[in-house]
C-alpha cells in the first residue's frame, strides 16, 4: 500500500499564475479527501495569514480519510533550543497531528545558505524532529536536495537522514529539489540508503525540471519507497512537481501497487479539472491520462483501428481514469472519422452511403480554406446534417451592418450593429450596441430572433478567439474565428473563416444560434 501525499495547497501555489484563496484551498482539500488522498499538506503556518487561516478553517470540516499536514523547516541556528523558534511553535499551534519539516542535506547549502558548520546542521535536524515528537506530532522529514547532496558528499547526506530517522521521524522523504536527477541515479542512491540505514521508511519528492518527476517517482517506488509526494496536474515552482494525475494511475494500472486514491481512479479526470478550474487556469488538454486529448484520435487509419479495437492506439481504457475517447475531425479524416462522429451525434448513416464521402470531401475542402472543426464540433454536426438534408432553415439573413465609431480621443469606441432577418414571412430589422463590433453583432442578431425563438435568451457567448491564417501578409490575410457558446445544459463550439473578421464572426455566430435552435427541435 503506497501512501499518497498531496502538496498542491503549498508547493502547487508556488507555480506561476497559480493562486488560491482561503475558500479555494478548503474546496480543494475537500475534493482531495473525497478522492482518497492520504495526506494533504495545507501550507506553512506562520509564513502568511492565509495559511494560518486555513488550518483554523479546515477544523470546521470532518474529513472522511485524508490527514491534514502542516509544513515548516528545522529550527533556525540562532536559537539554542528548538522550542524557542517561532517556526516550530507555529507548526504545533496549527494543531495538526502530522507535520512535515525540511532540512539541509547538501553541504553546499549548509555552508553557503545557512553559513553554519556541518555538525550544527545535524543538531538542528535531530533537535527539531525530537522536539516535535515530544509535542505529540508525527513527523515527516523532507531531506531537501538529497540527491544532489548525495552526489556531492554521500557520507554527509546519509548522516543527515540517519539523524532525522534516529530522532523519531516516521518517514524520510528524499527530495530531488532541483529536478535534475535521472531515474538510474534515483534507484542507485535509494539502494545505497536502504543498505546504510537500518529499517528506514522512505518517501520521494521530485521536481520536474528535467521532465522526469513522474518517472523518478515510479522508479523510487519500485526500489522500496512507500510514500509519494506530488501535486495535482504537476503544479509547482519552475517546471512543476511530480504529477499525481500520472503517478497514481501509473502505480495502480501499470505497476499493480495499491493506494487509497486508486480505489476511486475513475474520479481522476474530474479532480484534475476541478483543481484547474478553481485556480482559474485552462486545463492542459495534452496531459496524459486526464487531458482532453489524451484519448483523442485524428488520423483516419487510427480511427478505423480504434473503432475495431481500442487497444490498437490506447494504452488504457479512458473510462478507468474518468476520461473519454474522442474522434477528431480534420483534413486527415476518413470515412471512419465521419461514421464515428455520426454515431456520437445520433445520426443514422451507413458506411456505403454516398453522403459519407460527400461529407469527407466537403470537410477537406473547408479545412483547405482555413476552417478547423476540432474545436468547433457544433459546426461540423450542422455540416453533416445539411448534407443529409436534416437541418431546418430557422431564419434568412437579408442584411447586416456594423459601425465602430469614436467621437473624442479620450472616449472608448462605440460599436453598433444593424441586422435584418426574415423568419417565415415576417421581416425583423433591429439594432444593438455592444463592447466591440462582434458583441454588438451578437446582441443585434439575438435581439432580432428572440421574438420568434425566446429560448435564445438562455444562451450566452463564453469565448471568442481569432487567428490570422498563413497566406497573404498583413491586413489582407484570412482570419479564423472560433466561438464557444453555452446554455444551461452544455457548451458548444462553432467556426467561421473569411478575409473579413466581421464576416467570419457572423458565420460562427449563425452556426452557434442554429445549433441552439436545432437542439430544441
UniProtKB/TrEMBL annotation:
Superkingdom of the source species: Bacteria
Pfam family, one: HMGL-like
Annotated InterPro entries: 2-isopropylmalate_synth_dimer, AIPM/Hcit_synth_CS, Aldolase_TIM, Citramal_synthase, LeuA/HCS_post-cat, LeuA_allosteric_dom_sf, PYR_CT
GO molecular function, one term: 2-isopropylmalate synthase activity
Catalytic activity: pyruvate + acetyl-CoA + H2O = (3R)-citramalate + CoA + H(+)
EC number(s) recorded for this UniProt protein: 2.3.3.21
Keywords: Amino-acid biosynthesis, Branched-chain amino acid biosynthesis, Isoleucine biosynthesis, Transferase
UniProt-listed PANTHER family: (R)-CITRAMALATE SYNTHASE (PTHR43538:SF1), ALPHA-IPM SYNTHASE/HOMOCITRATE SYNTHASE (PTHR43538)
Sequence similarity: Belongs to the alpha-IPM synthase/homocitrate synthase family.
Protein name: Citramalate synthase
Source organism per UniProt: Dissulfuribacter thermophilus
